[in-house]
Amino acid sequence: MSSTSSEAHIRVLIAKPGMDGHDRGAKVVARALRDAGMEVIYTGLRQTGEMIVNAALQEDVDAIGLSVLSGAHMHYFREVVGLLRERGAEDIIVFGGGIIPDQDLPKLEELGVGRVFTPGASTEDAVTYLQGAVRARREKLGLH
């Protein structure tokens, strides 16, 4: 990486998996990340896990954010994390948000999901989380 700042050029893919058609929250988060200086790739609605992972690998992202309001969060997070592992890209940070019951949060963490933002979380929390998580990822990979 040519930059001396570990926070420069943070690349984040924001995706809406499945048939959920409500994308306002995803767009708000994408805008907040962009306003914080991150490069954001928004894939749009009705993405499959395969489409999300393919786009993430093609775009060489640091993180993937999933917005899930449909109740199928366990399926989609499990699918994306599994596909990343299959492709040797488990270092890509997976985070998300949506209507996700508190009792599922520890299960998502066990799957390898870095952080889940539920209703009421601030966009500043997402920015701060990603800055720290990406910094740690890059240090671990030797990409200062």
TrEMBL record:
Signal peptide: none annotated. Its cofactor is adenosylcob(III)alamin. The keyword Translocase does not apply. CDD domains: MM_CoA_mut_B12_BD. InterPro entries: Acid_CoA_mut_C, Cobalamin-bd, Cobalamin-bd_sf. GO terms for molecular function: cobalamin binding; isomerase activity; metal ion binding. Residues 9-141 form the B12-binding domain. The keyword Isomerase applies. Keywords: Cobalamin, Cobalt, Isomerase, Metal-binding. PANTHER family: COENZYME B12-DEPENDENT MUTASE (PTHR48101:SF3), METHYLMALONYL-COA MUTASE, MITOCHONDRIAL-RELATED (PTHR48101). This is Methylmalonyl-CoA mutase domain protein. It comes from Deinococcus maricopensis (strain DSM 21211 / LMG 22137 / NRRL B-23946 / LB-34).
